[in-house]
């Protein structure tokens, strides 16, 4: 009997600005880049020229680089493709059309399904790295009544937001993420007490998901949840 190679999730990674040969800091538990986050192997490919700033802003010139990196992952044996930035959902359709495996570029793909799980008056809080660039066009929701049930809040201007724009980016500050995310959730829930679910757009936020579940007492979904479900669906 021949043994099968382990199924690997291919992850499209943004540029971090590390000097050639430099070893990145060990990512915290829960990170998409920490091998212990998942119970299956992961492989990475950097998307050339894709930095936090221009991916969040939405540079259409990056599409070819996303496709090329995804195809490199397929050549290395990836059985599904994801990414380390929720704003890469802009390239979801193009990447999916270029490969023959499931593609889940962003947790925002979960929004239509999550809305159907809520009570008729319930709302979803979308926690994003930068709410100024997380517009309605990224949500994948056409019905205006459904869109009204999605509340977007961002952590722009905080310590983690500034850290991610640096070249090279410093090690992930988990405490800073938790403080900014928790503060944003408190503000949103004060204005929108109908919030029943939290969805993290930012692929860095899963590192604080357990803490936010405990403090908010609400379900929290993120890109790691979507990747787990996608990989679990395949034989």
Description:
The chain is α/β, with parallel strands linked by helices and 235 residues long. It has 2 domains: 8-106 and 226-232, Rossmann fold; 107-222, Rossmann fold (3-Layer(aba) Sandwich). Helices cover 34% and strands 15% of the residues. The chain has helices at residues 52-57, 63-75, 92-98, 111-117, 144-147, 159-164, 174-191, 209-216, 223-232; strands at 8-13, 42-46, 78-83, 123-128, 150-154, 195-200, 220-221. The strands form 2 sheets. Strands 5-4-6-7 form a 4-stranded parallel beta sheet, sandwiched between helices. The chain has a 3-stranded parallel beta sheet with strand order 2-1-3, sandwiched between helices. Helix 7 packs parallel to helix 8 (209-216). The mean pLDDT is 94.
What brief labels describe this structure?
Rossmann fold; four-stranded parallel β-sheet; alpha/beta; about 35% helix; about 15% strand; 9 helices; about 240 residues; 2 domains; single chain; three-stranded parallel β-sheet
Task: Note poorly predicted spans.
Answer: none
The CATH C-level name of the largest domain is Alpha Beta
**What's the count of strands?**
7
**Which strand order spans the largest sheet, edge to edge or round the barrel?**
5-4-6-7
Question: What share of the residues does DSSP label as strand, in percent?
Answer: 15-25%
- Report the sheet with the most strands, covering strand number, pairing sense and barrel closure: 4 strands, parallel
The number of helical runs is 9
């Amino acid at each position: 009997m021949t043994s099968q190679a382990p199924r690997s999730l291919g992850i499209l990674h943004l540029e971090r600005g590390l000097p050639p040969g430099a070893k990145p800091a060990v990512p915290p538990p829960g990170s998409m880049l920490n091998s212990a986050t998942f119970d299956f192997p992961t492989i990475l490919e950097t998307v050339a020229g894709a930095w936090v700033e221009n991916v969040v802003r939405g540079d259409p010139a990056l599409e070819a680089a996303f496709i090329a990196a995804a195809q490199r992952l397929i050549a290395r044996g990836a059985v599904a493709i994801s990414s380390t930035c929720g704003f890469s959902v802009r390239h979801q359709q193009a990447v999916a059309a270029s490969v023959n495996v499931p593609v889940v570029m962003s947790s925002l793909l979960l929004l239509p399904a999550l809305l159907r799980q809520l009570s008729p008056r319930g709302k979803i809080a979308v926690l994003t790295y930068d709410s100024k660039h997380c517009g309605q066009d990224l949500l994948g929701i056409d019905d205006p009544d459904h869109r009204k049930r999605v509340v977007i809040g961002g952590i722009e201007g905080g310590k983690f937001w500034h850290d991610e724009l640096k070249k090279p980016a410093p090690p992930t500050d988990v405490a800073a993420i938790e403080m900014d995310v928790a503060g944003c959730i408190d503000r949103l829930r004060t204005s929108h007490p109908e919030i029943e679910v939290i969805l993290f757009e930012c692929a860095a936020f899963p590192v604080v998901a357990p803490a936010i579940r405990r403090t908010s007492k609400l379900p929290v979904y993120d890109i790691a949840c979507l990747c787990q479900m996608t990989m679990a669906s395949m034989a």
